[in-house]
Each structure stands twice: as C-alpha cells, then as structure tokens.
C-alpha cells in the first residue's frame, strides 16, 4: 500500500511537535515563520547521517533518531546556545511504517527533551540519508567560539571520552561484521568477557544514544575562552581550536596534554588494554562531550559553576605558545600548531589513527 | 588522491560566500552565528534533491546547483520573503574535483544572484543527495500564507506554466531513457521537430534553471491573501491553498479554473498538442512560478504593483464556496474542496496525472 509524501509528513511528523510561542507557523506552509527573541542571536548547524557510514545498516531506528538529534544539539551546546527549532530532511528507500513509527517516536521524544520544535523539512526517496538543521539562541555576543583560546588557557573536557568508540567496537564484534567502513574505527586488544552486562550496555549507549551537553555549554558562556564538541576525537577537535585561535590571534598556539589526566570511564578501562587508552580517548570520535579552554583566572569560577551541574569536567592540558623551532615550515595559517603528549609529565610520542569519510580508500 | 572533508569544505565552499553584515560567523565553527534585523521574522525552508529522482544521473553539476538554489529560494519567495542565509548538506559517492568545481561555482553564482550567504553545512559520503536549508526575512506579520484565501478571491499565477515538464520530456527523449522514475512525468504527442533551437533551449532551461520569483513575492506581501510556489503543478498546489484556507476559515473552499486563461509559453504551444496543454499546465511540476489569490478589491492594486516588475501575472480562476452537495463526505478538514475546470466557460472534466515520490511503484 503506497501512501503519499504529504500523508507521511502528516502521519509521523506534524502533530507531535513541541509547541513554542516563537513558532508562528511550523510544518505546512512553504516556509516556517519564526520569531527570534530580542537580544538574542541565532546559532545554526546542519548534520547528515548516512546509513552504512554513520550508523549500521540494521541500526534500531530509535537509536538513529536519538543520535541524529543529539549530534546536532551538541553543536548548539558547543556554542553555549539554547536549542529551539529543527528542520528534518529525510531520504528513505521505501515507505516502511514500522521504521518510520519507531524513528519518529524517538525523534519527537528527543526534541521534547531539549525543548525543540520541528518546524519543517522534506521527505524524498533514495538511499537512507538523514539531515537535521538545528537553530538555537545565544545572548548577543556571548556565543562560545573555537577561536578564543589564549596562551596559558587550561584545557578541559566534560564527562568521559573514548566510550563511544568502545561501544561501536562491541556492536561490530557482536555481529562479526567485516564489510563496513566503520570497522576501521575499531582496534584490537579488547576483553569483552571482563565487562558486566551493565558496563557493556553503558558503552553501547554512549555510541548509540549520546547526550548533548546543553546545560554545560550554557554555564560555560562567559567563563570559557573557546569551545568545541568532541565529534572526531580530542586530538582532532583540539586541532580545530588551535587552528582557529592561532588564526584569530595571528600567532601560533600549541597544546600540552597529560595522558594520565584523560577522563576514562570505568567500563572503558575494563574493556580495553591500557596500551589503547590514549588511542580511544584521543582518536575515538562520537563522544559529544565538550572540549573547552578557560583562563587560569577563571578556574575557580568554572569549578563553582560546574558544581551546579551534574557533569564533571576534567583538566587535561594547557594551551602554550608554539616553540620557535616548530614554525620553520611555511604551511600558511596553521603552521606549527602541535599537540605534545605527556605521560606522567614525561614527553611521549603517540601515533593515532583518525577518521575522515573522504580518506577511507 | 584523497583529500579530507575539511579541505573539501575549505576549497569549494568557504571562501566564496556572499558577505553579509548579519553573518557574525559563517562556516568554520560548530554553528554559524547570525543576527536577525529588528522588526523581522525568520522564514525557513528545506529541500532535498536526490540523483536519479530529482535530476538525471548525468546531469550537469551546474544545472543541479542552479536548481537546488532556485527551488529553495522559491519557497522564500512564496512567503513574500527576502532570502538571506543557506546551509548545504552534501552527500557524495566520491571526491570528484571536476563535479565539485562546477557545482560550487554555480552554487555561489546563484547565491550571489539572490544575495544569500552560505553559512554552513555538512559533507558526507553516500549516494548523491543534496539538501539546502534556506532562511530569509519577512516584515513582522507580513508573511504570505497558504491559508489566507477567501471566497471571491481571484486566482493568479506568475509567468508561464508547463514549460519545465516539457523541458524534462525533451531531455528524456534526447537520450531515449527508459529506466528513470522521472519518465513518468513525460507524456506523448510531442512535436520536437517544430521547435527552433532557441525554443528547445528555453523549455530545457525552464526545467534545469528555474528562477525563484523573489521580487514578485515581495510585491505580493500586503496585496495577496494567499500564496504558494508551483512545484507539484497548479492542480496539486492549488489544493494546498484550498485545504489550508478551508481549515483556517472553518468552511470548505473550492475553485473554478478557466483553461483558456492558463498562461502557456509560445514554445510549449508549439511543442505539445493542444489536447495536452491542460495536462502540462496543471500537472506539470517544477515551474516555480507563484500561485496566489487576491481579493477583487485589490485587483487594481495588484495590477499597478505588477507594472513595476518584469513578470506578468495572469488571472486563471476564482475561489468559490463549496456547493453544499459536495460536502456529504465526512473526510475531516479537507472535505469537499474541489477544483472545477472550465473551457471557454463550459464546465469540463479533466483527468490529470500527478507526481509523488512515494506513489511510484
């Protein structure tokens, strides 16, 4: 039984949306009509998830919806913003009622959780590709940027890191999958047998059902100098802060990271051998924690503010000036930004394996 | 040679964007940061184009970019809005420099044409799927809605209609394509030989390179009672106005359309037999003209305002109350909305063949 595109939107997406006073018109016209509160600026982000690339082909549709929302809201959180409105572009190979019901139920549940109204979108036919555009507010001039890091800033991250990559590894091993791009993400030397059921579930949930750190981001506005969310892994995302801040300052910034300070969950420490902790914590993506820098003067202010949230933040390093010897390369704006890794205060060398969709082959 | 995702964004999309004072931060952070002018509301729309569904698999990438922008801006135009910002989600099967260069050149050219800044997006790997989210402004409370049609309103459309469908038919015939979904759009009884080269080029351009009617939409704000852009065809899109307006009024509206009034271009009249004119004009999609209704009192005001634009608008019908005999069905909010077709003022019966992605099989 075929059902039309417009029925599809109506049946699954129109009637369950969060009601907000600033949505003058939501789904159902050529555009949504929206009111931005006085004194606020808009923050806007777009993320796409493709089946077989960003999630396993037979992934639970509720997990897919959960992650699609979290990944986008996480970008708003990284700006210190308050999420408000979402547009969903849904490309699907067929009209699968069960899939759509499970997907839309969880999508609405997650949008409700963050107070976000679904204001529009598009449904088309093709390989499963899901794009969400999220809009939120920040107080005028208060957005957290990547580019604000200063020499001497302390580097923090929220929560624990590396869990999502371990969760993905557990899922891949469970089905002995070999044909997936995502497998490259997974590394050897695991001890699944050592995990309890709840530890295993914790790690998998960290991969499938991340939480966007909205409250933490809002606390950081006015305290942190720079911020980014951890989607690609700390090593890669810290480079974005270094590059953006170096470019904004006109001088090259680097960073020192203390490996023993990296916040690892207990299940992760049980599951993977110590030799791989740094790989998971630094190159494992998809944790959606916040990585941010704070001036030394603001350290007490940060600690006081964090006491009001239920998410610990951990200092993992410091921003430094780049040693003159590192800048001999003529590689334009990013010349010389480096991350130095310390193990119990001893400089050490790491080889990390990263992740980039267009570098796979 | 593989090149990373971030290089891709930088190389093709970051540096060519339109500069606007209301873009505090564009591409390069977790979110764009934007300022909405005082007294304005936001209008937001999202459209997806999938290769093989919305454009031919070997379509010129510049044509694809042109249409992607026009289709989205057309939704802003239909609200009477001024387009401002765009986010691009680009899913591509591989890293094809020639395709990306041609696509991004035309994308930027089109965004410049409409004064729109590219503020962000995402690039992912998968079957070619392009989603653009467009944002624009309307004066507070002045957005054109689908839901404002009143009994007695005159129904107008801008430009000429049916051309895009004829252009698609010409493209399909040129390659004797048979395996495409899009072929369903095309009908028999054509006389390609009768067309001059420039007439043929006109029809194909109307399919590949539509123009969003931004200036017309802005003129209509304050004059028209309702408006929609013609993406699915007049018959289908007029139903959206009737349904939305019936729902908003709490009474069922219908429409009379005079077939001899439908504005057909000279190339279209040359190319297709007269028996198919109504099919093309009413069920041919992708023209991206504006369909709108105006009260009889505003007719003179409309004609004066239209004299200042270079796009003619043509009255094609009138909004009527639904005859009581039509409302016997109990089909909820849309009960009884009907379109009656007249041929030289004689009521006539038409069977139109429509278009819906999820009704193909």
UniProtKB/TrEMBL annotation, chains A, B:
Catalytic activity: thiamine phosphate + ATP = thiamine diphosphate + ADP
Domain PurM-like N-terminal: 28-138
Enzyme class per UniProt: transferase
Pathway stated in the Swiss-Prot or TrEMBL entry: Cofactor biosynthesis; thiamine diphosphate biosynthesis; thiamine diphosphate from thiamine phosphate: step 1/1
Positions annotated to bind Mg(2+) 1: 46-47, 122
Chain sites annotated for binding Mg(2+) 5: 232
Record key words, sorted: ATP-binding, Kinase, Magnesium, Metal-binding, Nucleotide-binding, Thiamine biosynthesis, Transferase
Record: residues binding Mg(2+) 2: 47, 75
Binding residues for Mg(2+) 3: 30, 75, 229
Residues annotated for substrate binding in this entry: 54, 286, 355
Listed EC numbers: 2.7.4.16
Binding site for Mg(2+) 4: 30, 45, 75
Matches recorded under CDD domains: ThiL (cd02194)
Function field: Catalyzes the ATP-dependent phosphorylation of thiamine-monophosphate (TMP) to form thiamine-pyrophosphate (TPP), the active form of vitamin B1.
Family per record: Belongs to the thiamine-monophosphate kinase family.
Annotated protein name in UniProt: Thiamine-monophosphate kinase
């Amino acid at each position: 039984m075929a059902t039309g595109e417009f029925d599809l939107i109506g049946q699954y997406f129109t009637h369950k949306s969060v009601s907000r006073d600033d949505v003058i018109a939501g789904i159902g016209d050529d555009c949504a009509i929206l009111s931005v509160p006085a004194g606020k600026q808009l923050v806007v982000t777009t993320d796409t998830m493709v089946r077989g690339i960003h999630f396993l082909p037979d992934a639970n549709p509720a997990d897919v919806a959960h992650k699609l929302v979290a990944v986008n809201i996480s970008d708003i959180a990284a700006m210190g913003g308050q999420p408000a409105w979402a547009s969903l572009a849904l490309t699907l190979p067929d009209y699968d009622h069960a899939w759509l019901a499970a997907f839309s139920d969880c999508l609405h549940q997650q949008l409700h959780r963050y107070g976000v109204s679904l204001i529009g979108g598009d449904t088309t036919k093709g390989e499963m590709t899901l794009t969400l555009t999220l809009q939120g507010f920040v107080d005028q001039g208060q957005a957290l940027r990547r580019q604000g890091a200063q020499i001497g800033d302390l580097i923090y991250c929220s929560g624990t890191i590396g869990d999502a990559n371990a969760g993905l590894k557990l899922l891949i091993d469970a089905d002995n999958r070999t044909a997936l791009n995502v497998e490259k993400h997974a590394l050897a030397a695991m001890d699944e047998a050592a995990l309890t059921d709840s530890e295993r579930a914790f790690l998998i949930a960290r991969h499938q059902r991340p939480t966007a750190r909205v409250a933490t981001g809002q606390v950081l506005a006015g305290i942190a100098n720079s911020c980014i969310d951890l989607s690609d892994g700390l090593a890669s995302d810290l480079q974005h802060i270094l590059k953006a801040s170096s470019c904004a300052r006109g001088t090259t910034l680097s960073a020192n990271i203390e490996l023993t300070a990296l916040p690892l969950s207990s299940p992760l420490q049980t599951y993977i051998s110590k030799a791989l902790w740094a790989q998971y914590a630094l190159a494992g993506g998809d944790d959606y924690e916040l990585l941010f820098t704070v001036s030394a003067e603001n350290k007490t202010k940060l600690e006081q503010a964090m006491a009001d949230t239920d998410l610990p933040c951990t200092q993992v390093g410091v921003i430094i000036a780049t040693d003159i010897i590192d800048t001999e390369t003529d590689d334009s704006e990013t010349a010389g930004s480096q991350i130095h890794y310390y193990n119990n205060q001893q400089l050490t060398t790491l080889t990390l394996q990263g992740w980039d969709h267009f570098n796979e082959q």
